[in-house]
Specification:
The protein has 349 residues and is α/β, with parallel strands linked by helices. Helices cover 44% and strands 13% of the residues. The chain has 14 helices and 8 strands. Strands 1, 2, 3, 4, 5, 6, 7 and 8 form an 8-stranded parallel sheet that branches. Strand 5, helix 9 and strand 6 form a beta-alpha-beta unit. Helix 5 packs parallel to helix 6. The longest helix has 19 residues. It starts with a helix and ends in a 10-residue tail after the last strand. It binds 5'-deoxyadenosine (5AD). The site of 5'-deoxyadenosine has 12 residues, from loops.
């Protein structure tokens, strides 16, 4: 009885444009009831349909270097993981991979790497200029970099930037990122906004030490930034990191966060994350039916793909780009959606 009352209150409040109070968010996230998840997913699906339509945007991601100068406790690329074989793609090969993505019909290319100073501002700017000649939208996901680099890349034609805050809790952030502070990350997000990037950020669900209150604040932070793109994915333990022994993030809880993100940021571009489909075979469908409107396709050359091991058992480590694109088109059609034909730009924050 109480369960349905919670769901019904939530629904009618949202419909009356009352949104959610932090208390309600806390209650929703702590409720173990499946009906609550179902109600939220249905609402998120409706809002996605009204605000963003049927289209699913495909982003081709090229993971061009797994060198990283940071020591994030959850991440397999962290600098102290000596078990990992490191690689760097040459600028030429990055450009070739991006051209390949464009030739497969992808309208957005995401360049992602660890924080790797080998790629100076100038080198990456040159790569960006070359890739932009194909007409694709270009997203960077290369970590915290100085304002000058971000500016150079924006001038070179980069459109978007992904930089997750990972957790909105300053203490948890400091514990997970030794020597680093949440405030610096937020400053970097502010710089991106000032430079006119479409900004993406988000969190990891199920991090050791994370509480429901922290998750509520994660949602409120995403809403306040506000974002063009949001990334919400489950924590997946990596045995070669300090957090190896901890359990993975909970899939229903992640789906709840995803649905709430759609409800709080109705026009955000929201992927069904790779981490979600790595934990759960049906992850893409569950995400797309619960508020998401974006899929990331891994177009890193197959030779490097398994080495970009942020977390283990990452999905799609071996499919050829052509196959991946075909399979994705089929999946989108099967669930009654369509592949977007436009580049899928988002709001400026
Ligand atoms: N589990 C889930 N997500 C992770 N990331 C890094 N390591 C993990 C992990 N073990 C995510 C971070 C980062 C993105 C590129 O990958 O959120 O921003």
């Amino acid at each position: 009885m109480i369960k349905m009352t919670l769901s019904e209150t939530i629904k009618s409040n949202y419909q009356k444009n009352l949104g959610f109070s932090p208390d309600q968010l806390r209650e929703l996230l702590s409720s173990p009831d499946l009906p609550v998840l179902e109600v939220l997913q249905n609402m998120a699906n409706q809002v996605r349909q009204i605000q963003m339509g049927k289209a699913v945007h495909l982003r081709g991601i090229i993971e061009f270097s797994n060198y990283c100068s940071r020591n994030c406790a959850y991440c397999g690329l962290n600098r102290y993981n000596t078990a990992l074989h490191r690689y760097r793609m040459s600028p030429e090969n990055i450009i070739i991979a991006a051209h390949h993505a464009a030739s497969l019909g992808l309208r957005t290319v995401v360049l992602q790497s660890g924080e790797d100073a080998f790629y100076t501002g100038e080198i990456l700017a040159m790569i960006i200029k070359e890739i932009k000649k194909t007409g694709v939208a270009l997203t960077l996901s290369v970590g915290e970099r100085p304002f000058q680099d971000l500016q150079l890349w924006r001038e070179a034609g980069a459109d978007r930037y992904l930089l997750k805050f990972e957790t909105s809790d300053p203490d948890l952030y400091a514990r997970l990122h030794p020597g680093h502070q949440l405030a610096d990350r937020l400053t970097c997000l502010q710089h991106l906004k000032e430079l006119g990037y479409q900004v993406g950020s988000g969190n990891i669900v199920g991090l050791p030490g994370q509480t429901v209150d922290i998750l509520v604040n994660d949602l409120l932070l995403m809403q306040s930034l506000p974002l063009a793109m949001a990334g919400v994915g489950p924590f997946i333990p990596h045995s070669d990191t300090a957090l190896g022994p901890f359990p993975p993030g909970n899939v229903p809880l992640t789906l709840k966060l995803l649905a709430l993100t759609r409800l709080l940021l109705p026009r955000v571009h929201l992927p069904a994350t790779t981490a979600l489909s790595s934990l759960q075979a049906e992850g893409k469908i569950l995400g797309l039916n619960g508020g998401a409107n974006v899929l990331m396709l891994n177009l890193t050359p197959v030779a490097y793909r398994s080495l970009y091991e942020i977390y283990p058992q990452k999905s799609e480590v071996s499919e050829a780009p052509e196959q991946l694109v075909l399979d994705t088109h089929r999946l989108i059609k099967e669930i009654g959606r369509e592949v977007a034909t436009d580049p899928g730009h988002g709001r400026l924050s």
